[in-house]
Amino acid sequence: MTGPGIFSDIESPLTEERPQTDSHHGITRVDEFSWLRAQNWQDVFRDPAQLDPAIRSHLEAENAYQSALMADTVELQKRLFQEMKGRIKEDDSSVPLKDGPFAYGSSFKKGGEQPRFFRTPRNGGAEEIILDGDAEAEGKAYFRIGSVDHSSDHKRLIWAFDDKGSEFYTLNVRDLANGKELADVVPDTGGAGVWNATDDGFFYTRLDQNHRPSKILFHKLGTDHAVDRLVYEETDPGFFMNVGGARRNDWIFIGINDHETSEYRLLKASEPLAEPKLVEPRSPGLQYDLEEGGDIFFILTNADGAKDFKIMTAPADDPRRVNWKELVPHEPGRLILSILGFKDHLVRLERKDGLPRIVIRDRATGEEHLISFAEEAFSLGLGGSYEYDTDTIRFSYSSMTTPSQLFDYNMRTRERVLLKTQEVPSGHDPEDYVTRRLMAPSHDGELVPISLIHHRDTPLDGSAPCLLYGYGSYGITIPAGINTNCLSLVDRGFVYALAHIRGGKDKGYAWYDDGKRQKKTNTFLDFIAAAHHLVAERYTSHDRIIAQGGSAGGMLMGAIANMAPEAFGGIIAEVPFVDVLTTMLDDTLPLTPPEWPEWGNPIASEEDYKTIAAYSPYDNVGARAYPPILAVAGLTDPRVTYWEPAKWVARLRKLKKDRNPVLFKINMDAGHAGASGRFSRLEEIAYTYAFALKVAGKAGA
């Protein structure tokens, strides 16, 4: 099915070789394409026009090549785009959340790319548009809104935007009485501001030149941001940092963490000039999160060997670890994901037996109850709340066949109220589809969950093409929820499958631990096992499986391409983290030091160097046959830099022993998340789906 015959015979760009060597632990590597890394990458993130002309010329040649190879799918891409757009309610609106005299929400106008933020009187009434994203984005090639937060007196709005894709956000303050911006403009932030108790200033995270959140500052309204007060500075580049606030508006939380260790510092929202107090010093492997509870804090932690986490309490006036008391004990196999505290209840979102569930606890009696659901595989989301003294929580529910439903739930009466069901304007009948949950045996006997959906009429005789999606890093779980975009493939006879591989927390924290650092290859072998199981169960055949993953999931794509290229008919790698070793050796890059707990530190450890070198996709490209490959990237991406896929593609073309094409599409106006508008993003998805359909021989469908 696959092969050069499905693509035009067009010469791929020739990438100049400029070999450079590096040596670590007595091991020398040669990198013939390292020149594609812009030496002034920090400047390029802020202003793409600063890119070296030679690199720009090469990237433009790559775009011309992929455009030529995909030229025969242009009409298909248009059809796919219209189908996916037709499943989106263009003038959609959220259900507003109540806060004091108002209720706040967001909406889209018909044809709009960006959200509008509005408020109404608390119990309904006329909408007041407080921020119009389309108006703010006018004339910009890229525009993404960050956090939007109203003050507790409802007079002002802090909002953030990024107009480069580099994730350096500018904070603005808007007067809600007249809709005008104040002079308080703060650049180079993490994208969120947190009001103090008197609403005359806010806390925020400042990013340094290397895009790291190194400082928490306090800005007093009406002053120059250059004199903002330094609240806390993190000197260890290996830690992320953020600032948040309590719904009671009484505490400011400074959270500091890497992938294994966390630390909190606190100060009262009414005392922005005070020194933040340390809760518990960072200790390797100790994780804890704070949640408000009035005169106490709830603490979600893995302390004392609680691998799947437990809940503790501590007095708010002295929450040091010596004062922690157990409230919900550790239960192996029940992973507590998050908690939300209210005046009379504690809510937790947890995962057990591979499925999420919501548990409500009465704070006075300790009685607990579950919110129950019936389907075989589903996704749950625990919504936020502006209010602390309330009996109502909000949650969302969906499955691979059931459109998302939004509920309000009364924790006292246990009444569940359906607020909204996701509309699919072009029509959607869940009875047309079948969703299943399979368990694939991996190389070591572990069973890997697979969630899948197919059309009821799709033959299950091995002839159906399959798009198999995977991620498997950072403990992130891919939810088995509705994805109306994939229906464009499913309606054309595809099986759409999610492989819940190790490296995520799909089966508890141990599932994550077994897919990181020295055990990282479990992630790749699990994905390959999922492909084999789908073939064994007659859902598809190997030459009809198109694998897809993005970011760390793109690294997965590069690894499985090297390890088992014969198991896949095509591979789609989006913003792929494929040059793992080189990136982990470069401590100037934004995410490298914080990522060492996830991947290992090859600078300090020879063992870590060898572990990463053994699977790093770029370092393991070989003289073998590969299926058709598509790589997608963004020029201003600070998370996975554009040169990783650029180098990977060049080396693949140089070494591989087949005539299958390797395509590289780079968005010259975007970063890690791709195009910023909701419909612009659909155009990118239509492109990748067109590639999958072309590889599967269904480009005419």
Automatic annotation (TrEMBL):
The keyword Hydrolase applies. Gene3D superfamilies: alpha/beta hydrolase, Prolyl oligopeptidase, N-terminal domain. It comes from the Bacteria. Residues 15-26 have a biased composition (Basic and acidic residues). Pfam families: Peptidase_S9, Peptidase_S9_N. GO terms for molecular function: serine-type endopeptidase activity. Residues 16-421 form the Peptidase S9A N-terminal domain. Residues 486-698 form the Peptidase S9 prolyl oligopeptidase catalytic domain. GO terms for biological process: proteolysis. Residues 1-26 are annotated as: Disordered. Keywords: Hydrolase, Protease, Serine protease. The keyword Protease applies. Belongs to the peptidase S9A family. This is S9 family peptidase. It comes from Borborobacter arsenicus.
